[in-house]
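Listing 4. Sequential folding, example run.
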Amino acid sequence: MSLPNIITLCRLLLVPVVVWAIASEEVQLAFWLFVLAGVSDAVDGFLAKQFGMHTELGAYLDPLADKALLISIYVALSVEGLIPRWVAIAVVARDVMIIGAVMLSAVLARPVHIKPLVVSKVNTMVQIAFAALILAANGFDFPLGPLMQVGLIAVGLLTALSAAAYLAAWTRHMAS
């Protein structure tokens, strides 16, 4: 068990605490925990790269922790009425589609190796930024104004584009 893996496990353990904070209307706390999770993601990545601490477990655990945090936050924000439900549905549906495609490929003895696409990296950055913005606005009581609509459109569009790109790549893989 490497230090980056321990940090990643701690980030995974933060997920229910962040959800609890949102559900308990402790949105400032949720914001700071979300920031802590983001910092921990950067730190574990830095340590793994700079000190050669990459592990096979970490290769699976890190994206799992990231997805668990993002999906949980979007669902919690939706349940609390801080974002429209369609946004949470889109975020969850995209990840379920990707996981389902990977599982189906394995079952059909055509395993696919998912590499992060540029659109997916941009999508993840925008999803993180929007979630942080929503948490900050609600935790520190400042109005978002038009930023809310811009964020919703950006997250919705990029989530759809990312899902379509992965679906196209998976379809090409399965057809080859």
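-- end of first protein; second protein begins --
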Amino acid sequence: MWTIYQHHKGMHYLALGNALHSENMEPHTIYLALYDNPRGGLWARPCGMFFDNGGPRGSKRFIEIARLRPLALNEASSVLPFGYDAWGEGRTLEDFVKSYEANKNHLRGQRYVLEDLEGQKLSTVNTLRFHPELTGLAWLATDPEKRKNGHAALLIQSVMALLRHEEKDMGFVLHSEIGIRFYEKFGFVKAPVENQNFEKSIAMLAGNEELFDKHAAVFSEFF
């Protein structure tokens, strides 16, 4: 589980954990910027400074706002209802949830969930690793009662930053059913016309274009 913080200036960061300075054993918090920072994405700050009251008028420098964690497969039924209104297609909620018991992408993917500080699930997304440097994002959905609060955006930013921390050249593909403007905020662009295989969704990509040329088949094989 990782904690998401908001700096007093408004930027969001994903804390990866703590590390000890090799010379003086001072503990440091290691964290990722969840925005395009030209100076770098990975940061370290002494824990004493990270958790101090260095904000305006003695307020906290960093404030906990949410948590990110992988979702175990046996927990999926708790978040699948988030997508029922979009993908239910006339089925009952029970039948909709049950249909994922044999869904290939659901079973092979790693789902992540954004939770509030009390552990309430807010938003979820599935990730499909097609290649060590290529991940598909699928099934982004937010609790209907919690929508329009930026939870999906914070989840996408966090998951992309985390996976790029594991592999700096990580590329991403997805199919959008809501147009392109939402995903453009995270560096996605519309894929070439030859990769547009579905009438009701738009293939998009983010990252190294040469990587997508090499693995173009994923657009039709897995989506």
